[in-house]
Amino acid sequence: MKLFRILYIISILLPLNIFGQQTNNTRPRLIVGIMVDGLQQKHIDLLWNYFDNGGFKKIIGQGTVFSNMSYNIVSAGNASDIATAMTGSVPYYHGIAGNRYYNRSNDKIQSVLFDEHEIGIGTKETLSAHKLLASTLNDEIVMASGNKTKSYAVAIDAEAAIMLGGHTANSVAWIDDVMHKWVTTGYYREGLNRWADEMNVSGRFKSYSSRKWQPLYTINTYVSAATDNRKNGFEYDPNDKKAKNSNSTILKRTAAANALVADLGLKIFLEEKLGTGQHTDVMMLQFTVRTPNEKLFSMQTLEKEDIYLRLDKEIQFLLQQIEAKTGADKTLVYIFGNQNDIHSPNELGKNKIPAGYFNANRSMALVNTYLMAMYGQERWIEGYYGKNIFLNKMKIEEKKLNFREIQQQVADFMLEFEGVHSAFTSRNILTMSGAPGSEMMRLRNSLHKSSTGDVVITLLPGWLEVDDKMNPVGESNAIISYAPVYFYGWNIKNKNIKTPYQITDLAPTISRMLNIPMPNAVVGSPVREMFD
Q1: pLDDT band with cut points at 50, 70 and 90 for residue 434
Q2: What span, in angstroms and rounded, lies between the C-alpha atoms of 339 and 79?
């Protein structure tokens, strides 16, 4: 009788075990997600014949291309763009409305990832994913495996590293462009990955960052040679300062930054034996095609072309190593870009197209003067950042003034400024409704109650907001901002999907492919054409 019961139990458990094994085998062993800052399809098309066969050509030529993937939020920096892609949601829900924000409590502009309860490892920055209020695709992959998935992120910038890593990564690392080393936050359980630490200690990091950046090929072979008249090419030292009064260097906008990310990413892949276990592992990487002193977004400089050609080689080498160890049929690779304009205001202006740069600091001084003329000599504008105007609520209450009336007066007054298209009170935005793809909903999607100003402005097409140092605040002001998205490898067919989709469809699509739960604030939907 006992033997019968044992055999009966085995007969029940055996099919379950087989089913479990089949489920694991139907998922890739490794997922490699790549975000490229500044990536444009137009640039890829222009340089197509100059790329090697194993990089962009292989991924695009053998994979799936999304020709009409757009962002359904206003551009406010990489943190917001990446968080939106990885959560399948929008800042209205996931909370990351930009790289930085104005903090009313301390009257400072600070990183949206600032976390006073964390420690920096190798850096004074104290950052975490705490303010990312939704789960990410990678979080769901980790949780679906019972926390047995290995997950790593290597990036150029802190915001990218943390948004790519999500809440559950083993470790993330980003470049410190002052001390020239890998750094991280104590938020992640492994701290600074040992291979990143080894690169710092061995001097391998500084070996990369001390190399002069010069053209890869003879100048006259570049497409840009027709418009770039520099016969001697260019030379950059990644150790050069961004500005005379800055401690930061230009490292993050040189080819050395991409080489560092590729080197550490490959080292982690090999040494941590990613893609060799029973559960799907994840490697997230951020690269860039931004260049020093960049004033034009189009492919008109030797530097822009050269950094693409070098990045193509970095991606090719990574693919070769990963496929040799894990196999192309067991590796899912996806690449996506952020929001960026095709043309800069500088370039548009040269072609007699209306455009310009909007400097908010000068504008806020005029707004405050306007309010002083009506309500007295006080500091009525408390702060400003990223198209968000913060009124001095305490002073308005103290004077027993009508807050909503002043809000509307400021919104109306902002319409008089050159470059401003519209202005709304926060109440109007957070309660507005409309068609999913409308400009009103795109604006509402882009804000979160924790960081929204009392008045929010939008700019005219062709205009770009900059700070006093002419650094962009948000990378694009296009009404519809498209970004390249490519899939390659595991279960990916060769096709070009021309149907319009939004970046919030990326995470739910991969979730459905992996048969795991979608991120918990998802507003996008799986792309049906990926399953045809």
Answers
A1: low
A2: 11
Both structure tokens of 13: 């458990």
- Across the beta sheet with 455-459, the strand order is 381-385, 388-391, 455-459, 420-425
Tokens of 12: 């029940």
Question: What's the pTM value of the predicted model, to 2 decimals?
Answer: 0.91
- Is the separation of the CB atoms in 36 and 335 below 8 Å? yes
Concatenated DSSP letters of 131-188: T--S--HHHHHHHHTTS-S-EEEEESSHHHHHHHHTTT-SEEEEEETTTTEEEEETTS
Both ends of the chain: CA-CA distance in Å?
51
- Which amino acid is residue 132, in one-letter code? L
What are phi and psi for residue 147, nearest 5 degrees?
65, 30
Dihedral over Cα of 118, 125, 361, 337: its sign: negative
Residues in the chain: 532
Contact 310, 258 (CB under 8 A): yes
- The three-state DSSP-derived secondary structure of 429-481 is HHCCCCCCCCHHHHHHHCCCCCCCCCEEEEECCCEEEECCCCCECCCCCCCCE
280 contacts 31 by C-beta, under 8 angstroms: yes
Contact in structure between 105 and 94 (CB atoms under 8 Å): no
Tens of pLDDT, residue by residue over 227-282, are 887 888 999 999 999 888 889 999 999 999 999 999 999 999 999 999 999 999 99
The tokens for 182 are 């890998």
Measured in degrees and rounded to the nearest 5, phi and psi for residue 21 equal -65, -40
d(CA 430, CA 251): 39
Cβ(455)–Cβ(389) under 8 Å?
yes
Please state, in angstroms and rounded to a whole number, the distance separating the CA atoms of residues 10 and 8. 5
**514 vs 211: CA distance, rounded Å:** 41
Amino acid at 274: L
Q: Which of helix, strand or coil describes residue 95? A: coil
User: Which 3-state string (H, E, C) describes 471-492?
Assistant: CECCCCCCCCEECCEEEEECCC
Separation CA 342–CA 296 (nearest Å): 9
Domains of the chain: 28-341+479-531 (3.40.720.10), 356-466 (3.30.1360.150)
Angle subtended at Cα 406 by Cα 403 and Cα 407, rounded to the nearest 5 degrees: 85
pLDDT value at position 485?
98
Alpha-helix runs per DSSP H in 359-438: 360-375, 393-398, 403-414, 426-430
How many CB atoms sit inside 10 A of residue 480's CB?
A: 13
The pLDDT of residue 18 is above 50: no
Burial call 76-98: b when 16+ CB within 10 Å, e when fewer? bbbbbbbbbbbbbbbbbbbbbbb
Alpha helices in 210-254 (DSSP H): none
